[in-house]
Amino acid sequence: MNLVNRLAAETSLYLNQHAQNPVAWQPWDDEAWRLARELDRPVFLSIGYSACHWCHVMEHESFENPRIAELLNQWFVSIKVDREERPDLDQIYMAAVIAMTQQGGWPMSVFLTPQGHPFYGGTYFPPTSRYGRPGFAEVLAAIHDAWENRREVVTEQASQLTMSVHDQLSERQEPTTLQESLLEKAGRTLVRVCDRVNGGFGHAPKFPHAMDLRLALRLAHRFDTTETAEVAELGLTAMAKGGIHDHLGGGFARYSTDEVWLVPHFEKMLYDNALLLQAYLDGWQFYKTDFYRRTAQSIVHYVLREMQVPGAELPGGFCAAQDADSEGEEGRFFVWSQSEIRTVLSGSELGNDDSRLFERAYGVTSGGNWEGHNILNLPKTIAALGRELGMAETALEQKLSLLRAKLFEHRKSRIAPGRDEKLIVAWNGLMISALARSGLVLDDQEALQAAQRAARVILDMAESLPYGLPHSIQKGQPKHGAYLDDYGCFLEALIELFLADGDPSWLSRALPLIDRLVNEFHDEQGGFYFTSNKAEKLISRSRDFQDNVTPSGNAAVANALLKFGRITGDARSQELAHEVLQAASGLMQQSTMATAHSLAALDWWLGANYECVYVPAETTSTTDAEPLKQNAVERVAHELYLPNVLFLTGRAQWEGTLAAGLVNGRLAPASEPVLYVCQKGACQLPVVGEAAIIARLKGLAQSTDE
What is the pTM of this model? Predict the structure, then answer.
């Protein structure tokens, strides 16, 4: 039977990128599995994503290679999967690859029986043996030989590996007591594993670990520990100075290939920038460092400029990723020669004072710092360089800002990397949360409005679909029902939007999502499954407690339900969140670095935490022309680091809504502003007057354990 490549009709950009390969790729569907069973062939499953550099390399070397394609088409049924569309498949088969090889990554290459059971796998395979890896053609020949001549061995290995994967994904850690000692241990761990020289954690390749940096600040606030705070400061400063940070266009690349944050893997992911935006907002509130505020603003500007889904099909929402490659070269769009910089800034390759200042600030040399090119980075902070030059930081930053703008305009003439315009609900939830909070902390109404638009697009679609919340939307079309992290991250986003604009409809529209989450995902033994009970049945149904580059689904759900329950007085949400934390407690005890978002929820659960409802005086109420303009109290509240405070500006429109229980009808503005400080729905005596309110908020910022 002559198989044909069936990917052209798929909506995934990643699958479309392989639609012209001579490999007879199949999407993951019933037809592909029917073929595998009828032909009695093993399945070659290849999983990757559109912005993956090594996925492009393996495509060019192997999947465009006629001889390798011939072997695949003759001996296998080849299935291509976009990991961003099917994280459930990625999770299961990545567990198999790690069990076989003790490492994982993308592209993921797995060989399965026609029943979907894995028996051999790896990641990138070169076409011929090199890098200590077997050649892909040799692998295919060996797998074919084993399948034809040692079938019993293969099926037995597949059976054992499938059981191992099932046990791993359904493993339940022995729970422990939810107490402050878990947080104390986490703080000690973060200090111990921090790279005290270069910032961040671990060795090359080096990932941002935004959730761990945020946890470090939380724990520094709870325990008043300088060492823990320094963990966050070292990481945030080093990354913002490094080449992983796009100093011209804003935003961060996915990770650094070295220990010093200089050479990134140049793709930009939506989730990284959402999580890092939150981390730099925290850093600015905690340290009041202008460098962190500017870094946060640069992420916002990048996302609003380059990552909003285009076209009229979706009037809001954010793209998944930007590629590392352009014109066939990794990083080509982002790197510079010294002569090009001098020509742009001074009109001459000889340069002038402007170009020499920029070169000194951003580490530019004639020989370059990466493969003969320059990756822009800050060897010193702007403040430190200003001290050397005898310039105020503000004046130096203004000057450099003008020079960066010139180079940015020039860079726009280059061929830009590709962009995956798929909307992934979980990642959009992370970005909506970050932008909603930016609306408050940075007083950026454009950021808040972008977050509101994205949330409405997703909610409107969820309310029109029989399965509710989708996982992804491509070219205006929903794809697959949501997974647990979609629910968790998007529910967190709806809470953040309510905190940002006070619109109670965010809460009312969250409620049916919570009901569906409980009905379809809840595990009676505690926590939630990663997939709905209505989803496709796979070889295992996993429970997701471990953070990866994004928060675990259970951790996101716990954070969302804790805050939803506290705002609305909904006891069920509080109880479910407690269940999640109890189920995750064993893993929290075992691994700080895998549970930062759960530990943040635990910090909230243990308290002390507060709901602060601010009711402005009649004379300070906002106008229709500027409905969200901040007054002095709100500015102070949003500039303070208050990780365990829900600060809301009370509005009359709350009456009769889920938000009304917070203040029990005490929303009418009086002649002086009032602050209600509440714990678990019980409010203390009101604080009256602007000065007294600001003093009370500053007191809460000193410690949440009063």
Answer: 0.94
Do the domains at 7-170 and 610-701 have one common CATH topology? yes
Give me the amino acid identity at 18. H
Q: What is the largest CA-CA distance in the chain?
A: 88
Q: What distance in Å separates the CA atoms of residue 225 and residue 208, rounded to the nearest whole number?
A: 22
Q: What is the pLDDT of residues 354-376, one digit of tens each?
A: 999 999 999 999 999 999 999 99
CA contacts within 13 A on the Cβ side of 437: 29
Please list, residue by residue across 272-302, b when 16 or more beta carbons sit within 10 angstroms of its beta carbon and e when fewer do: bbbbbbbbbbbbbbbbebebbbbbbbbbbbb
* Residue 106 in this model has a pLDDT that exceeds 70: yes
What pLDDT was estimated at residue 343?
A: 96
Q: Are 323 and 417 in contact (CB under 8 A)?
A: yes
The CATH number for 7-170, chosen from 3.40.50.1100, 3.40.50.300, 2.30.40.10, 3.40.30.10, is 3.40.30.10
DSSP code string of 124-140: ---SSSBTTB--HHHHH
The backbone region for 600, taken as left when phi is positive above 0, alpha when psi lies in -120 to 50, beta otherwise, is alpha
The Cα 346–Cα 198 span in angstroms is 34
Integer Cα distance of 648 and 655 in angstroms: 15
Question: Could you tell me the residue ranges of all domains in the chain?
Answer: 7-170, 180-328+419-606, 334-412, 610-701
CATH architecture of 610-701: 3-Layer(aba) Sandwich (3.40)
Check residue 350 and give its pLDDT: 82
Task: Dihedral sign for Cα 445, 686, 180, 698, please.
Answer: positive
Nearest Cα neighbor of 370 from 416, 333, 337 is 337
Number of neighbouring beta carbons within 10 Å of residue 208: 25
Q: With contact defined as beta carbons under 8 Å apart, do 291 and 400 qualify? A: no
Identity of residue 328: G
Confidence of residue 154 (pLDDT cuts 50, 70, 90): very high
